Amino acid sequence: MNAAPLVALVGNPNAGKSALFNALTGARQKVGNYPGVTVERKSGRLVLDDGRPVELVDLPGAYSLEPSSPDERVTRDVVTGKGSLERRPDALVVVIDAANLDNHLRFALQLIALGLPVVVALNMVDLAERDGLVLDPAALSRDLGVPVIPTVAVRKRGLDDLKAQLTDTIGGGAPHAEPRTLETGGALQRRARQIAASAVVSEAPARRWANMADSIALHPVIGPMLLVAVLFVMFQAVFSWAAVPQDLIDSGFAWLEAAVKAALPDGFLQSMLADGLIAGVGAVIVFLPQILILFLFILVLEASGYMVRAAFLMDRLMATVGLSGRAFIPLLSSFACAVPGIMATRTIEDEKDRLTTILIAPLMTCSARWPVYTLIIGAMIPNREVMPFVRLQGLVMFGLLVMGIAGAYFAALVLRRTVTKGASSGFMMEMPKYQMPQLKDLAIGLWTRAVIFLKRAGTIIAATTLVLWLLLSFPKPPANSGISPVDYSVAGRIGDGIEVLVRPIGFNRDIALALLPAMAAREVAVSAIGTVYAIDDTSAGGEDKITEKLRGRWTLPTALAFLMWFVFAPQCISTIAVTRRETNGWKWPAFMVGYLFAAAYIMAGITYWLAVAAGL
Ligand SMILES: Nc1nc2c(ncn2[C@@H]2O[C@H](COP(=O)(O)OP(=O)(O)OP(=O)(O)O)[C@@H](O)[C@H]2O)c(=O)[nH]1
Ligand SMILES: [Mg+2]
């Protein structure tokens, strides 16, 4: 066999391995300014100067070769060649953060002692320079006994040197040395510190700016207030900035629907395209601007280094329910989608801790809920200004988000005292440096989200909507019977059956109809309602906006109960599937689905009856 040599990128979390991987291979792995971004190995191809291809793997960051969490185990298995499927790398590129030398050198020394050919990438030298730290790579190389190349992954500086060095190292068929034994614990730490110290040429005193920023961001009183303010601005922005592009997309789809109706003769094809596909998928795609604004905020917060500070602030609060501060990042990722959030729990070392985080992750307001929330809020909640700059709609949205967090908080409290009992571990995360977000990273991040969203709309959401349309359209009621087509259809009858179950919590038949297909993806609730109302259209022109139709048919208590249902209901097949994968069995996903449905039913019921009692 003559496979391409395998080279692995290894190092501490947040050293810039993925950034380097992307720069070297042209891949688009996610980079983020916090530890634990990469949790799986990813490989790509790199062509060396002598034309030889190399397989490069990006690994999760680790602090040492004694793994304490599942993602670190991946790294250990690859570099030691222990995993059953792993081919041992032919060389390692050890990535270290120049501004954080003594910490990162500890792991680097362990890796070098393995005996594989090693090239050290002394990354982030730009940040070190910014902080007034000047290093001598040659001195470092002498002390470590391996080549050291200064790099700036995000600006592609030093990459040519790195490739040239790799060509040398691999090309020479560098022999694998015997693994050396190494001092451990304190002794290793001391040696790392010594080597780091002797590599420093000059160092400016305190990093004043960052210290000042942290004394505000981490202040016990100002810090949390700042965090709430940031989140609040984010929600208001999502609503107000998105209005114009949303209207544009909305009119676009209305125009398309009208055009199809005009171009095609009445009948099966026309109704399928206009009422089914266009009305349904269009109802979802309208929310693209909001999703992108939301992600713009999340990406900027991540890249700037603020996110880990937020995690640190939340740590004490999370500790009161027995969760570790490490759970914050997975939970935060779950605001995008619970699926990557649940995968990100691999950075949590304690099994019970991790399981609890997985079980509550679906309560975070994932982006699939935004279309549902916004549609209902936009239609049913008046857009009054309750305070200067604070509108009622944004406030309700914020309330739903807080509801999800409160639900998660309460669930964790109960779970940690019952099914996932155990001690919790403390916060263990280094603070990343403050950074100006890279425009290109933001663009790639937004692009990725847009593609994911549109792909879902074009595949799973379109397919589910079409099936629903079919079930809603057949059989047709006898002519002149006066029965509405939806009432007479298969779906209408199934809806009637489900309605019996959900009438006690204030749901109507249209909601009952939307619940089942929304299992595929939450946004389908929106496209389903869009389709139901397109088929059941009583307006003359048939171009009423979906919001106007909602206003005519739903009461406020029903709308509020529906919103509350979506805070809790585990309506997403992918989340259930990833939970099965990450917990190795059906037990925990089944438990998760059970407790969340029960919570959804109870909370929606309480909301409905309280709203009715309040005379809303
Ligand atoms: N200024 C500067 N920033 C960098 C450099 N390399 C990486 N970064 C940034 O540092 C952060 C961490 O980079 P990643 O590539 O995600 O780090 P990683 O080592 O893959 O981290 P894990 O996957 O968590 O182990 C990101 O915000 C990058 O944009 C660099 O050379 N200079
Ligand atoms: Mg990474």
Automatic annotation (TrEMBL):
Q: Where is the signal peptide?
A: none
State any single GO MF term. Answer: GTP binding
Q: Which compartment or compartments is the protein found in? A: Cell inner membrane
Residue ranges of the TM segments: 221-244, 277-301, 321-343, 393-415, 453-472, 559-578, 590-611
Q: Which residue ranges does the record assign to the FeoB-type G domain? A: 4-172
- Report the membrane topology from the UniProt record: Multi-pass membrane protein
Keyword list (alphabetical) reads: Cell inner membrane, Cell membrane, GTP-binding, Ion transport, Iron, Iron transport, Membrane, Nucleotide-binding, Transmembrane, Transmembrane helix, Transport
One GO term of the cellular component aspect? plasma membrane
Which InterPro entries does the entry link to?
Answer: Fe2_transport_prot_B_C (IPR011640), FeoB_GTPase (IPR050860), G_FEOB_dom (IPR030389), Gate_dom (IPR011642), GTP-bd (IPR006073), P-loop_NTPase (IPR027417)
PANTHER family noted in UniProt: FE(2+) TRANSPORTER FEOB (PTHR43185:SF1), FERROUS IRON TRANSPORT PROTEIN B (PTHR43185)
Q: What is this protein called?
A: Fe(2+) transporter FeoB
Organism, by scientific name, is Sphingomonas gellani
